Amino acid sequence: MAVVLPELARRVWRWPWSTLLWLHAGAYVTRLSSMTDWNDYVANVAHALGQPTTRTPWRRHSRPHRRRFARLSRIVDQSLGSLIVSMSPFPIPVAPFRPGNQAESDAVPDYLPMPQGMRIYVAPTLRERCDARALGSARGVLRSVLGVLAAYEPGTPSEAIDLTPYDRATLRVLNDVLGEGEVSARVDGAQRSGGLIQETVFAGLWRVVERNGARPVDRLEISAAPAMLAQPKDPAQPMMPLPDMLPLDVMNAPLILSEVRDSAARWRAGHAPHIVNLTLLPLSPGDQQLIDAVLGEGAVQILSRGYGNCRVGSTAIANCWRVAYFNSQDMLILNTIEITDLPEVVRAAPEDLADSRERLTQLIDWMGEA
Fold first, then answer.
1. Does 106 map to a domain?
2. Does residue 362 sit in the same domain as residue 222?
3. What's the first-to-final CA gap in the chain, in angstroms?
4. No. of H helices and E strands in the chain?
5. Cross-strand pairs, 210
6. CB 15 within 8 A of CB 4
7. What is the pTM for the complete model shown?
8. For the chain: N or C, fewer Cβ within 10 A?
9. Largest distance between two CA atoms of the chain
10. Are 223 and 254 part of one and the same domain?
């Protein structure tokens, strides 16, 4: 097989450029011109392999030029290899691939497992035997919650409803109908007893149990995020200085920590979050260890379960958070450092708050029928 030079194809033959010549021992067999469909091309190639050799077809010219091109024909036939760019032989027989001519096997496609375990809203249920008095008391609490939720504006301070005065039967009904949402949090600290936070199935409605003294304080908070998360009572420490001598495998950690220190010092309430994406940076094991040691661990640990898991933790630096995203196979897909008062992934969106108002209204009507 050979490729015809453009000048030769134009002057000697009436062939379009992009023409393939099929040769056997330097003699002309046939040609394939212009672009064709792949199936047609494969069929033409298979046909060309079985054709005998013949003389090169020449372009027709007027009588004065016949003698000239007859001489040129002999020259080209004798030295066709010098006028055509030859390619390597084609010893492999061409066989078209089509459905049905491939051997059957037991092999199956290998692909990554599909995501599993996505959390969705599930309507709450009540126990078969429920105290009517406790049911009415819990319905009154939810009416109060609905009133606060209807008046709540995103960005305003959270509103709380104290659940300490209610008995166990009422709290049991509230536990059943409110359920557990996507976000859970734990707050610890040396200067306080800490607390537990659980989002209910209604986004923006949080169950907060604060261990304050001998008796815990149980309350419902209506807000994008509980105040205990955004305003920890324990003061954060300034970033510790880097040691003079660093391990040999530390490369990018000093520059990252310098960026985090400067961003945390400049950040103020209302500023946009500053995010450092560690996933896109080349980090050695020494870099990871140095970043973990310098940032430290804070009092707040948050787990957001939705389409996979998102683990959020405060650091020893003020307004500095570690945020790690995992897929449903618990594989780390995004690792970031965020400079903000609270990462956005923890907060309930305004659309979620509006949806919670609608669903809570339906729940109160359903409890009234029950």
1. no
2. yes
3. 85
4. 10, 14
5. 195, 217
6. yes
7. 0.65
8. C
9. 119
10. no
